[in-house]
Design brief:
- Helix content is 71%, strand content 0%.
- The chain is mainly α.
- The chain folds into two domains: 87 residues, Rna Polymerase Sigma Factor, Chain: A, CATH 1.10.1740; 67 residues, Orthogonal Bundle (Arc Repressor Mutant, subunit A), CATH 1.10.10.10.
- Helix 8 packs across helix 9.
- The longest helix is centred in the last third of the chain and has 29 residues.
- Keywords: Sigma factor, Transcription, Transcription regulation.
- This is RNA polymerase subunit sigma.
- Belongs to the sigma-70 factor family. ECF subfamily.
Protein backbone atom coordinates (compact mmCIF):
# COMPACT_ATOMS: atom_id res chain seq x y z
CA UNK A 1 0.00 0.00 0.00
CA UNK A 2 1.43 3.35 -1.09
CA UNK A 3 1.65 6.26 1.35
CA UNK A 4 -0.26 9.40 0.47
CA UNK A 5 1.12 12.96 0.71
CA UNK A 6 -0.24 13.42 4.22
CA UNK A 7 1.44 10.26 5.52
CA UNK A 8 4.74 11.25 3.92
CA UNK A 9 4.49 14.70 5.54
CA UNK A 10 3.73 13.12 8.93
CA UNK A 11 6.78 10.87 8.65
CA UNK A 12 8.91 13.90 7.85
CA UNK A 13 7.43 15.75 10.83
CA UNK A 14 8.17 12.81 13.12
CA UNK A 15 11.87 13.02 12.30
CA UNK A 16 11.67 16.79 13.02
CA UNK A 17 12.57 17.77 9.46
CA UNK A 18 12.54 21.57 9.41
CA UNK A 19 11.27 21.87 5.83
CA UNK A 20 8.34 19.63 6.73
CA UNK A 21 7.32 22.05 9.48
CA UNK A 22 7.57 24.96 7.06
CA UNK A 23 5.44 23.03 4.58
CA UNK A 24 2.89 22.20 7.28
CA UNK A 25 2.72 25.86 8.34
CA UNK A 26 2.41 27.06 4.75
CA UNK A 27 -0.32 24.57 3.98
CA UNK A 28 -2.44 24.89 7.11
CA UNK A 29 -1.78 28.29 8.71
CA UNK A 30 -4.55 29.99 6.72
CA UNK A 31 -7.12 27.34 7.61
CA UNK A 32 -6.11 27.34 11.27
CA UNK A 33 -6.07 31.13 11.41
CA UNK A 34 -9.67 31.04 10.21
CA UNK A 35 -10.55 28.52 12.91
CA UNK A 36 -8.92 30.65 15.62
CA UNK A 37 -10.59 33.82 14.39
CA UNK A 38 -14.03 32.25 14.85
CA UNK A 39 -13.28 32.28 18.59
CA UNK A 40 -10.78 35.12 19.03
CA UNK A 41 -11.55 38.63 17.77
CA UNK A 42 -8.24 40.53 18.06
CA UNK A 43 -5.80 39.79 15.21
CA UNK A 44 -2.76 39.87 17.51
CA UNK A 45 -4.43 37.33 19.78
CA UNK A 46 -5.27 35.13 16.78
CA UNK A 47 -1.58 35.17 15.79
CA UNK A 48 -0.56 34.30 19.36
CA UNK A 49 -3.03 31.42 19.50
CA UNK A 50 -1.91 30.19 16.09
CA UNK A 51 1.74 30.30 17.18
CA UNK A 52 0.94 28.47 20.42
CA UNK A 53 -1.00 25.89 18.42
CA UNK A 54 1.95 25.18 16.13
CA UNK A 55 4.29 24.96 19.14
CA UNK A 56 1.92 22.45 20.73
CA UNK A 57 1.79 20.47 17.47
CA UNK A 58 5.57 20.44 17.26
CA UNK A 59 5.89 19.22 20.84
CA UNK A 60 3.19 16.57 20.54
CA UNK A 61 3.60 15.25 16.98
CA UNK A 62 4.95 12.02 18.50
CA UNK A 63 1.51 11.38 20.02
CA UNK A 64 -0.34 11.91 16.73
CA UNK A 65 -1.98 8.76 15.41
CA UNK A 66 -2.72 8.64 11.69
CA UNK A 67 -6.30 7.47 11.12
CA UNK A 68 -6.68 8.06 7.44
CA UNK A 69 -6.70 10.98 5.08
CA UNK A 70 -7.74 14.20 6.79
CA UNK A 71 -6.79 13.04 10.28
CA UNK A 72 -3.78 15.38 10.43
CA UNK A 73 -5.97 18.38 9.59
CA UNK A 74 -8.59 17.29 12.15
CA UNK A 75 -5.89 16.91 14.82
CA UNK A 76 -4.51 20.35 14.04
CA UNK A 77 -7.97 21.96 14.14
CA UNK A 78 -8.65 20.32 17.51
CA UNK A 79 -5.41 21.80 18.88
CA UNK A 80 -6.23 25.25 17.45
CA UNK A 81 -9.73 25.17 18.98
CA UNK A 82 -8.36 24.06 22.36
CA UNK A 83 -5.72 26.79 22.29
CA UNK A 84 -8.40 29.34 21.37
CA UNK A 85 -10.55 28.21 24.31
CA UNK A 86 -7.51 28.37 26.58
CA UNK A 87 -6.88 31.97 25.44
CA UNK A 88 -10.50 32.90 26.13
CA UNK A 89 -10.38 31.38 29.62
CA UNK A 90 -7.07 33.08 30.47
CA UNK A 91 -7.85 36.55 29.14
CA UNK A 92 -11.48 37.09 29.91
CA UNK A 93 -12.58 34.47 32.37
CA UNK A 94 -15.15 32.67 30.25
CA UNK A 95 -17.23 31.92 33.32
CA UNK A 96 -18.00 35.63 33.65
CA UNK A 97 -19.02 36.00 30.03
CA UNK A 98 -21.48 33.14 30.06
CA UNK A 99 -24.59 34.67 31.47
CA UNK A 100 -28.19 34.45 30.47
CA UNK A 101 -29.38 37.93 31.32
CA UNK A 102 -27.45 39.95 28.71
CA UNK A 103 -30.19 39.69 26.11
CA UNK A 104 -33.89 38.98 26.36
CA UNK A 105 -35.24 35.68 25.18
CA UNK A 106 -36.01 35.77 21.51
CA UNK A 107 -39.18 34.14 20.30
CA UNK A 108 -38.78 30.88 18.42
CA UNK A 109 -38.89 31.89 14.78
CA UNK A 110 -38.37 30.18 11.51
CA UNK A 111 -34.65 30.05 10.77
CA UNK A 112 -33.69 32.69 8.22
CA UNK A 113 -32.26 31.65 4.87
CA UNK A 114 -28.57 32.33 4.41
CA UNK A 115 -28.39 31.64 0.70
CA UNK A 116 -28.35 35.27 -0.42
CA UNK A 117 -25.99 36.50 2.32
CA UNK A 118 -22.24 36.39 1.59
CA UNK A 119 -20.32 33.95 3.80
CA UNK A 120 -17.99 36.74 4.95
CA UNK A 121 -21.01 38.68 6.22
CA UNK A 122 -22.33 35.64 8.10
CA UNK A 123 -18.91 35.13 9.70
CA UNK A 124 -18.82 38.82 10.66
CA UNK A 125 -22.21 38.38 12.32
CA UNK A 126 -20.97 35.34 14.24
CA UNK A 127 -17.86 37.24 15.35
CA UNK A 128 -20.07 40.06 16.64
CA UNK A 129 -21.86 37.76 19.08
CA UNK A 130 -20.94 38.12 22.76
CA UNK A 131 -17.97 35.89 23.58
CA UNK A 132 -19.93 33.23 25.48
CA UNK A 133 -22.60 32.90 22.83
CA UNK A 134 -20.00 32.89 20.04
CA UNK A 135 -17.89 30.23 21.71
CA UNK A 136 -20.79 27.85 22.33
CA UNK A 137 -22.21 28.50 18.86
CA UNK A 138 -18.86 27.73 17.18
CA UNK A 139 -18.29 24.58 19.20
CA UNK A 140 -21.78 23.29 18.45
CA UNK A 141 -22.02 24.26 14.78
CA UNK A 142 -18.45 24.04 13.48
CA UNK A 143 -16.84 21.51 15.80
CA UNK A 144 -19.99 19.35 16.05
CA UNK A 145 -19.75 19.11 19.84
CA UNK A 146 -22.76 18.11 21.94
CA UNK A 147 -23.94 20.37 24.73
CA UNK A 148 -22.54 17.85 27.19
CA UNK A 149 -19.10 18.03 25.54
CA UNK A 150 -19.26 21.83 25.39
CA UNK A 151 -20.18 21.99 29.06
CA UNK A 152 -17.18 19.82 29.95
CA UNK A 153 -14.82 21.87 27.75
CA UNK A 154 -15.95 25.19 29.18
CA UNK A 155 -16.69 24.16 32.75
CA UNK A 156 -20.35 25.20 32.55
CA UNK A 157 -23.63 23.38 33.05
CA UNK A 158 -25.02 21.47 30.09
CA UNK A 159 -28.25 23.50 30.15
CA UNK A 160 -26.15 26.70 30.10
CA UNK A 161 -24.56 25.52 26.88
CA UNK A 162 -27.98 24.84 25.35
CA UNK A 163 -29.24 28.22 26.55
CA UNK A 164 -26.19 30.04 25.15
CA UNK A 165 -26.67 28.30 21.80
CA UNK A 166 -30.38 29.16 21.71
CA UNK A 167 -29.65 32.81 22.46
CA UNK A 168 -26.82 32.91 19.90
CA UNK A 169 -29.18 31.57 17.24
CA UNK A 170 -31.77 34.18 18.20
CA UNK A 171 -29.26 37.02 17.96
CA UNK A 172 -27.97 35.73 14.63
CA UNK A 173 -31.52 35.46 13.29
CA UNK A 174 -32.08 39.06 14.35
CA UNK A 175 -28.84 40.21 12.67
CA UNK A 176 -29.69 38.32 9.48
CA UNK A 177 -33.16 39.84 9.41
CA UNK A 178 -31.67 43.34 9.86
CA UNK A 179 -29.13 42.67 7.11
CA UNK A 180 -31.84 41.53 4.70
CA UNK A 181 -34.01 44.54 5.57
CA UNK A 182 -31.11 46.93 4.95
CA UNK A 183 -30.36 45.28 1.59
CA UNK A 184 -34.02 45.41 0.63
CA UNK A 185 -34.17 49.12 1.58
CA UNK A 186 -31.15 49.80 -0.66
CA UNK A 187 -33.02 48.49 -3.69
CA UNK A 188 -36.21 50.44 -3.07
Amino acid sequence: MKENKEQILINRLLIKEETAWKELFGTYSGILSGVCSRYIIEKDDVRDVLQNSFIKMFRSIDTFEYRGEGSLKAWMIRIAVNESLKQIRQNSGFQKTVCTSDFPDTPEEEEPGLEEIPQTEVMRMIKSLPEGYRTVFNLYVFEKKSHKEIAELLGIAENSSASQFHRAKGLLAQKIKEFKMSKKAQYE
